[in-house]
Specification:
It is built from 5 helices and no strands. The longest helix is centred in the C-terminal third of the chain and has 28 residues. It has 137 residues and is an all-alpha fold. The protein has one domain.
């Protein structure tokens, strides 16, 4: 029961974080990317930013929040996959391009923590739902 509660709290925090980024990117996409030095100087760039960091993050966050009340495993799996993608992309970036600024480095550690937490919770929830083997008398 405690694992389920921890998963619910974790999904709540992830959901709020993704929704925050999503809402910010939908309405102020340039402000979101200013931290990494990217300038969105045309409507296509703004549109793509609103779609990927805005709409996708908002819906992903809402899905995490939905998972609090329903089955936590699917949203946790998606958090694990999503953060794996970020970690892989950032790691390749570091290897090919060098060290990023403090803002990006902080996000890398946040994503690593989220990845580890989501995988740990998935494993713990899986162990709770596995049928116990019948013991021989």
């Amino acid at each position: 029961m405690i694992t389920k509660r921890i998963a619910q709290v974790f999904l709540g925090l992830m959901g709020l974080a993704f929704c925050k980024v999503g809402i910010e990117a939908l309405f102020t996409p340039q402000a979101v990317l200013a931290n990494v030095g990217i300038v969105l100087d045309n409507s296509s760039a703004l549109n793509s930013m609103r779609a990927v960091y805005g709409g996708m993050h908002l819906v992903f966050g809402l899905f995490c929040l939905w998972g609090i009340l329903k089955n936590q495993s699917v949203p946790l799996l998606l958090v694990a996959l999503y953060t794996t993608g970020f970690v892989v992309g950032r790691t390749v970036g570091i290897l090919l391009d060098g060290s990023p600024n403090e803002f990006v480095t902080t996000w890398l550690f946040t994503e690593l923590f989220s990845l580890a937490t989501s995988v740990t919770l998935l494993i713990a929830l899986q162990r709770k739902t596995e049928p116990k083997a019948a013991t021989a008398l």
